[in-house]
Amino acid sequence: DIQMTQSPSSLSASVGDRVTITCRASQGISTYLNWYQQKPGKVPNLLIYGASSLRSGVPSRFSGSGSGTDFTLTITSLQPEDFAVYYCQQSYRTPPGFGQGTRLEIK
Amino acid sequence: EVQLVESGGGLVQPGGSLRLSCVASGFTFSDHYMDWVRQAPGKGLEWTGRIRNKLNSYTTEYAASVKGRFTISRDDSQNSVYLQMNSLKTEDTAIYYCARFYIPWGGSLDVWGQGTTVIVSS
């Protein structure tokens, strides 16, 4: 199975900050990498697919990059509604594992 | 509106069974693969299984943690997907989500239900 490892596990930041979350796959997955946001008590929401394609309706302050084994999710100018848990997921091969999540908290 | 609605969760004793349902609306259900994803209390997301469409013979795949105990099926005439859970263990306690596997977006899960809670406890 392909293992997905996110770093950091948690992150404190302030409104207006720029943050980067990293996701590493245990083997190459091309660009079959997706990012989800989950707010407390809510359903996960797809933000980015194909490593860098922004889902319609997702603010442009979110961006993704990477291919192969190393990927990043960047949020520029953090907004209050961005504080949540973020998960990466590979969809290259079954089982489509998720990273352990990165909790983004308000500093 | 594209929507998935799960039901069937509840409290069950270890060793027991439960059947979850997920009803889709707002899209051509029969075209799509469907996934189940679960989330234990305070934990991350765990992919549970998938059922493909008729074109792909309704084949299924499962996470190792549930293989042999859980079975996914679907009824395209009812726009529904099911998760039959047998031999339940306390570690199966979780919110269970159904989600649409969207091939044009690289197999991402673009639509999620609101989830249904399963508690396995004596």
Structure description:
The complex is a heterodimer of chains A (107) and B (122). With 107 residues, chain A is mainly beta. Chain A contains no helices and 10 strands. Chain A has a 6-stranded mixed sheet, with no helix packed on it. In chain A, strands 1-3-8-7 form a 4-stranded antiparallel sheet, with no helix packed on it. The model of chain A has no long low-confidence stretch (mean pLDDT 97). Chain B is mainly β and 122 residues long. In chain B, strands 2, 4, 5, 6, 9, 10 and 11 form a 7-stranded mixed sheet that branches. The mean pLDDT of chain B is 98.
What is the helix fraction of residues of chain B, given as a range? under 10%
Major sheet attributes of chain B:
7 strands, mixed
The string of secondary-structure elements of chain A, in order, is EEEEEEEEEE
Radius of gyration of chain A: 13 Å
Strand content of chain A: over 45%
The largest beta-sheet of chain A arranges its strands as: 2-10-9-4-5-6
Number of strands of chain A: 10
Spell the H/E element sequence of chain B.
EEEEEEEEEEE
Short account of what is shown:
The complex is a heterodimer of chains A (107) and B (122). Chain A is 0% helix and 48% strand.
Sum up the structure in keywords.
A: 107 residues; mainly beta; six-stranded mixed β-sheet; 0% helix; B: 122 residues
